[in-house]
Amino acid sequence: MPSLPRVNGVKSVDGEFEFDDDPDRVDLDALWEVLSTQVYWGKWRTRDHVRRQVASAWRVVGVYESVSGRMVGFARAVSDGVALAYLADVYVLPDLRGKGLGTRLVEVMVEGGPGADFRWMLHTANAHGLYGKFGFGPPDPSYLERPGRHPGTGTP
User: Where's the N-acetyltransferase domain (predicted)?
Assistant: First the structure.
């Protein structure tokens, strides 16, 4: 099966921060550090898992400090590139939360890119208010799901 073409080139600068969907800019070490120690959904992943997930993502968006270039937020999407996408690994570093970066990150990923008209899905135990701003809500009755068997992929 041929891989989907990467969709990148979006770069948005919001004062102190840049939102960029260049996958080569992602700081994999910083991403793994956050996913393996700070978030409930990613602690089971190895560095290689994170590297492979970023490499195979349809789109990634990083949040970077404009001056230092430090990655302070991230979101990843898996998609067929035509009609649907799954949003994953959305985070902003704790010391920068409350500044609207999470809202802007989801906006850039979901509304500001090539998937603006897609059906989007995600799993989250929190931040329902954030995602609700972008039309996310409980699934309709036709939705079925097979839970993951890998440790950490189920309900927290």
Answer: 17-156
Calculate the alpha carbon distances from 45 to 50, 56, 70, 122, 146 in Å.
Answer: 7, 15, 22, 18, 20
- Domains and their CATH numbers in the chain: 11-132 (3.40.630.30)
- The sign of the dihedral angle between the CA atoms of 120, 124, 128, 130 is negative
pLDDT, average across residues 19-37: 92
Query: What are the tokens at 22?
Result: 């260049």
Give percent above pLDDT 90 in the chain: 67
Which among 22, 39, 19, 41 is positioned nearest to 112, based on CA atoms? 19
**Containing H/E element for 131?**
helix 128-132
Q: What is the pLDDT of residue 137?
A: 95
| pLDDT of res. 3 | 36
